[in-house]
Amino acid sequence: MTGNQRPIIGITPDVSEPKPGSLRVECSLAYSRAVADAGGLPIVLPPLLDLIPEQLEMCRGFVLTGGDDPRMEMFGAPTHPRATAMHTTRQKYEVALLRELESRQAAPVLGVCLGMQLMALCAGGKLNQHMPDDTPTSDQHAANARHSIRATVNDGVLARILAGGKAGADPRISNTVVSHHRQAVSEPGRLRVAARAEDGVIEAIDDPARRFYIGVQWHPERTPDPTAGAAIFRALVEAARSQR
Question: How far is it, in rounded angstroms, from Cα 51 to Cα 162?
Fold first, then answer.
């Protein structure tokens, strides 16, 4: 790859089934716009299991997008009755993609909202499947609400991003993000909690052993705060560009 060539960033779409047996994929253009503005070439990936090996060869980085709620039976727990379950085709594909990426740890991965939750589940983590049951401030995380988050570690890629590119995050610095979720990661499994909201809700996870493996509960593709929005996509693309 030449220095001026845009690295291909694969983006996972949502899956719907308006008629039985007739599947459709769709993806907010905001993800592609954010990747393109950061210098990447966005490609929306069809959720076909047999294509994963070729997608891994083609793409230099990946974005797992937001969507409906995971079906928890795959992870050994019942699905909450108030959950809006994601399509099984999407869930099987994205879990398989994450499993394959475990053996390609140099590939940068960004999980957004649902994408972060799947990253945690695949790492042995757990979810709070319905925040209104036990989180009095759950409304602060719904309907594209804006709220503040703070880094919980002062090392790693996300800490530097949230600190405006500085070597370490200052725990006194907060970033304003846009959220839209009713579920949240309660335990990150093998991953690390990298940021929380003021009410304690886990807002970001990462794997410090990997070059760029970050999940954020907020939506950086529509977050105006540059350090919690566009800067995350720039860091993803830069990691993809320099990947060997």
Answer: 35
Residue 236 near residue 7 (C-beta atoms within 8 A): no
Q: What is the rounded distance in angstroms from the CA atom of residue 131 to the CA atom of residue 143?
A: 14
Rounded to a whole number of angstroms, the distance between the first and last alpha carbons of the chain is 9
pTM over 0.85: yes
pLDDT digits (tens, 9 = 90+) for 51-96: 999 999 999 999 999 999 999 999 999 999 999 999 999 999 999 9
Query: 8-241: CATH homologous superfamily?
Result: Class I glutamine amidotransferase (GATase) domain (3.40.50.880)
Q: At 14, list the tokens.
A: 């949502």
Percentage of the chain beyond pLDDT 70 is 95
Domain boundaries, the chain: 8-241
Give residue 12's region: left, alpha or beta (phi > 0; psi -120 to 50): beta
